[in-house]
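Bug report (template v2)

What were you trying to do?
Predict the complex of my protein with 3-isopropylmalic acid.

What happened?
Run completed; filing so the output is reviewed.

Input:
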Amino acid sequence: MKIAVLPGDGIGPEIIAEAVKVLEVLNLGLEMETAPVGGAGYEAAGHPLPPATLKLAQEADAILFGAVGDWKYDTLDRPLRPEQAILGLRKALGLFANFRPAICYKELTHASSLKPELVAGLDILIIRELTGDIYFGAPRGRRVAPDGHFPGSEEAFDTMRYSRPEIERIAHVAFQAAQKRDKRVTSVDKSNVLETFQLWKDVVTEVAKQYPDVALDHMYVDNAAMQLVKEPKRFDVVVTGNMFGDILSDEASMLTGSIGMLPSASLNDKKQGLYEPSHGSAPDIAGKGIANPLATILSAAMMLRFSLGMEEAALKIEAAVQKVLADGLRTADIYSEGTTKVSTSQMGDAVVKAL
Amino acid sequence: MKIAVLPGDGIGPEIIAEAVKVLEVLNLGLEMETAPVGGAGYEAAGHPLPPATLKLAQEADAILFGAVGDWKYDTLDRPLRPEQAILGLRKALGLFANFRPAICYKELTHASSLKPELVAGLDILIIRELTGDIYFGAPRGRRVAPDGHFPGSEEAFDTMRYSRPEIERIAHVAFQAAQKRDKRVTSVDKSNVLETFQLWKDVVTEVAKQYPDVALDHMYVDNAAMQLVKEPKRFDVVVTGNMFGDILSDEASMLTGSIGMLPSASLNDKKQGLYEPSHGSAPDIAGKGIANPLATILSAAMMLRFSLGMEEAALKIEAAVQKVLADGLRTADIYSEGTTKVSTSQMGDAVVKAL
Ligand SMILES: CC(C)[C@H](C(=O)O)[C@@H](O)C(=O)O
Ligand SMILES: CC(C)[C@H](C(=O)O)[C@@H](O)C(=O)O
């Protein structure tokens, strides 16, 4: 099995190093090859997704991804900015199904902005469609406004779109995920305003008929943003489009109070996947050895489960992470009085030891 | 001065009755005329925004609006559904500037999902552009996909667009609002992905030069959804497009824990405005006399201030609402032990008495 290891920018290299450490100690016979991506790709080869990196990713069974982005690339033209690497990988590999768990760990409940009773035991799985919607819809660009409020003035535009099969395949992913959980799916749309999401709602409703054991409800995106704050535990699986999923998955992560703990997976129909922490590259703390590697280590566990069929090894890693938490080890982002503050590499070492 | 009073559906008529009561006791010489809208418009005249209602709204100096929507209209064709009335009014009157305050009242801090220290004293003003973006962008519809992942299959699409002058005018509204507050504007975009919001960011940055006393920062919408949960008090004025504003303004309202207290205003360039509570029509509690009329009463105060130039009367209403809260009067939605539970009309009467 071949893994493309793409550390990226900011804290990316530090957290990836710990995840690699954990994978190596498990002796799974993985062939891991590292390549630059994001700002590091731009420095090394003049492009955030250098051709050699893309080729490696395409040929690998899975990609272990750190994080990309740094203020210093803000002035580059958009096609050269670090985050284009991630959009490019999603598109090139067809990674349409994004899994974003929002889990509140028992030991970390107090770290949430929300009152403990609202988040204790929280376990939401957000399934975000990742290769369609307004992210990739054409046409897009700038032009002279042909009509509208100010015809003749400069305007910019983008196209939101979803086709029936694109919605069907992500709906199947959501219903099948729900079957392994609490058997409830909330489909988030804006069908009261958007044609795209009226089709979304219609198709999800049709696909639901194939899953009579799963309960489906529909919610407008504005209401979903409210219900996540008001009563997050009402959700089991949430399925939505690329744009709404971007917003809601981040909102949900932050509700847990410990975004440094949350992994993610982005899969295509061949079970190839990109695995990355839900948090960003945090350039402000890069190189200080204080970043939390657990989201990346848990992403490696998801990789073993989803792309490599190594469920047992995945469970081992997850149990080891539970153990270090139970032992009171904390990186700075999740530290609280009475626990033991550790560095990035100490945390990685502790997971290795727990294995 | 002429006011179009549009009660609408669900709890709309009950809460509007209390706001009208409050306006009448102030003896401001307002001419108030009532007309059906939403589901009530459909029942009365076969359309959610009957021509006579629209005409009344267009000729009025301001619109006092209750709420629209009820499950029983869910099966109607989209153009006949209640919420089309509100989209129709925004479009016909050019109500491009939506003011959505998210305020946490001292007496109600405990009602928030968030820990009290995170929301005590919260006072955010979200300015949402309301007549552009993907809400009204053409072309839109269903078709056979000309390209994309599944060419030839059925697809639905919408167009997101903003022109330079549309962005300029809402940016001016935001900067001018900030000048009367803490002099900070956060512009929310998704310029890393969308052409529309790259133009948005560019134009807001240019307009900012005319307001050297106001500090501007930019935030991606996914990050804004997170920061609202993590540290809501970091925001003063937030300005964003129609779609992102829909989501973020609802998220922010819910953070306060007392959406039953939050008014809103939607203005055009002639200071004509539509004033409505931030909450919905709540058909489940309609007719029970338990709805909170304060958001609607405070919307009437905003109406006096923004559209009728009656600042003094607006301040009087706001002070009266503060007084009934301080006196411990609460409708069911904001009730807590040790306070006095009152009905919708008792709350309206108490505000009248405090005046
Ligand atoms: C970096 C950006 C393009 C990306 C997105 O919007 O999808 C990020 O926010 C994410 O959620 O992975
Ligand atoms: C009812 C709906 C069309 C409307 C919107 O999306 O703008 C509502 O959610 C609002 O925010 O006023």
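What did the reviewer find?
The domain at 1-99+264-355 of chain A is CATH 3.40.718.10 (Isopropylmalate Dehydrogenase). The longest helix of chain A spans residues 164-179.
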